[in-house]
Target: Glutaminase
Amino acid sequence: MDLTALIDDIVAAMARETERGTVASYIPELAKVDAGQFGVAIATADGRLLTGGDADTGFSIQSISKVFALTLALGKVGDQLWDRVGREPSGNAFNSIVQLEQEHGIPRNPFINAGAIVVADVNLGGHQPRVAIGEMLRFVRYLAGDDAIRINEEVAASETATGYRNMALANYMRAFNNVRHPVDLVLGSYFHQCAIEMNCRQLALAGRYLMLDGRHPEGGRVVSPSRARRINALMLTCGHYDASGDFAFRVGIPGKSGVGGGILAIVPGRAAIAVWSPGLNTSGNSALGTKALEMLARRTGWSVFSPPEVHQG
Ligand SMILES: NC(=O)CC[C@H](N)C(=O)O
Model:
């Protein structure tokens, strides 16, 4: 499989698309982004990095940060995390509150907002937000091998000023003692983690440990093999909220989306893929990003549901 030619085909096909979705506007700073952009990067298990389109343009990773935050939280508290957050798809929107009352303040999974706020609470660990934010940034830089990765303070401030739903979720869970630090500190940390800015190239590199059974490609281990597999399992079942089933059906590999329009997708043993296009579909997932991954999976044969020998890439 000639991945360079495939990337060229994908970039050309996405340029022709007229249904490009709608840029998120509930975080005012994100509404300023031009919906005409599309980028893709593929980091392969044999150490290549192939890119196309706007792969060097930075974007807000938003909920993709929940993958890295979960990895850190599991490193801190291990399986005890699962006393405070579930592992089931919610079947609801990413910012929904409805299940929390019936389910006693325990969010369905770490990738919906409520679950990610609990994870942020765990990662605070009694420290000030700047300590947790610094740790997260160092972790992502280490995964990507790139110290240029930064937090976009305007995006963080924009969400801090308007994140009423997240404030409601955090306060609600505080009432169940499932958020244990002051709500403003937890959300300060969460909003900054979401405001990490990366380009497709950096994001694909940061995702390599998940295709390598938890190994860092430069040596050493980020997580154990079983933990890497479990994070991938959660990405497949919960990474696209109430559209996770549709993503598994159409694309067939674990993926995590963010309202900045990025998606990180993992083909175990093969590739870590980042796509980005800011226009979202009605579930809040990148419209073109999903289409591009569908095309890539079809052309390469990459799927977690097929034996590796049929993969062409
Ligand atoms: N789906 C997302 O990317 C949501 C992240 C965003 N920061 C929020 O909490 O609303």
